[in-house]
What does this fold into?
Amino acid sequence: MKLVAVESLSPGVCLSKSIYNEQGHILVKKGIALTTTVINRLKILGISYVYIQDDRTQDIDAYSSIPSEARNRAMNTIRDSFLKLKNQPSGRKQISLFEQSLRDITEITDEFVRDLTDNDDVFSLLTDVYVYDNYVFSHSVNVTLYALALGIELGMSQKELEKLGVGGMLHDVGKMFIPNEILNKPGKLTNEEFSIIKKHTTYGFELLREIPSVSIISAYCARQHHERLDGTGYPYGLKEDQIHYFSKVLAIADVYDAVTSHRIYRKAMLPHEALEILYAGAGTHFDREMVEAFRKAITIYPIGLSVTLSDGRKGIVSGQNKGLSDRPIVRVLEENQIKLTEPYHVDLKEQVDIVITASETTIS
It folds into this structure.
């Protein structure tokens, strides 16, 4: 299998992994040759990358860090819970309805914590391709998973992870009170529209702090996940230790998922490209030690990605090294500009003098 950009697909190529909708139903089945119509449909759906079949890498497979059933259940729960809020006038009944949903959200978060804690592999969300109708719902689940992966790397306790997970699931709940025409606007927001968007942090906090079963720490996650260490964030321009530890974790997870997700106005970045953004803001926007821990916790070069090594050799990422996500295992397919009849593997954990210098997502 090989990871490629949808823009590079041509008719006749076969998927090696199916594409799902947010209910977990197959939209495009693996093994079927793609047509021009289907490829165009994938572009319209906003899918940036897919896995395709490739004779030279057919035995390489990408694992899923979280069972698809758990992820689908989380998506459905967040969607149903948030829409109840949106459709119910504010007041005691709204809070009561959301308290009922919170039990399901907490159970799902606990399941995520168990799955990630028991998983010895490097965390990745790129392995299964999903199409979502609403970015806020998928983003809430993804941010939770990234935040938990980082929290585990930072050595958080079970109780801390549970609170962090609930904070992640609910960090954008305030967006349910933002007008859809602004929230889903495809073009650049005006200054006035951006001022309205920024209010979601306050809306979320004000709602969550009124719910007795929600930890005040989780409520702070909603209010502070856009704050930055140097005071350039919002809504209050907090600095350094004024920002809660969990909110600093969520800030990293939030930005990372935002730039690795397809949006109407730009395609998704690959993990190593997104990590460069975090490193650029380390020490000013984001906690430097947390960024470094995040690098260790997630997959930087996903399985199936075509890469070029510093000595000119080219190949496909075929395996990962826990804690050394920038030092994966690479199956070398080309050496001295000659395609090899007998490919071999290079473990960059062992070959410390070799690094990845480029990646490619086109079909060659």
Residues 229 and 241 are 8 Å apart (CA to CA).
